[in-house]
Amino acid sequence: xxxxxxxxxxxxxxxxxxxxxxxxxxxxxxxxxxxxxxxxxxxxxxxxxxxxxxxxxxxxxxxxxxxxxxxxxxxxxxxxxxxxxxxxxxxxxxxxxxxxxxxxxxxxxxxxxxxxxxxxxxxxxxxxxxxxxxxxxxxxxxxxxxxxxxxxxxxxxxxxxxxxxxxxxxxxxxxxx
Length: 177
Ligand SMILES: [Ca+2]
Ligand SMILES: [Ca+2]
Known about the structure:
This is EF-hand domain-containing protein. By secondary structure, this protein is mainly α. The protein has helices at about 5-20, 30-40, 45-70, 80, 85, 90-105, 115-125, 130-140, 150-160, and strands at about 115, 145-150.
């Protein structure tokens, strides 16, 4: 399957954000840096939610390195990362784990809803730009208390990695879309 332009743009953006130290490659240290930042973004989150998200980041990083490091140099290059969209089913389980753990961090009270400030704090910690974050939250259709269902967010994270999808809420995260 040929990924949509939107899907390619989405994963290129993810690569640039996950490369937390900006050296052009994904390595275990990048996931440690990113995880530390995101886990600290919601002060009210319970320890269990932090531990779960830290574990999801670790597992995600390990899976990417295991599955994508084609030349075996211990790091994932931008070219190697492109397989993420070419062969997405290999990552379904780990993306799912990450999506659920991130959405749970945004719902520290456990009522099934994510309030705008927590959403923005988490997405800024990942590295997305604020106008794009606001546009995505708006696209989710926040309720009268300015909240969105945690499940809507988790579904949107899963969609984000689908190679056949274009015109989805997650495209708001890509500058210029
Ligand atoms: Ca790096
Ligand atoms: Ca490599």
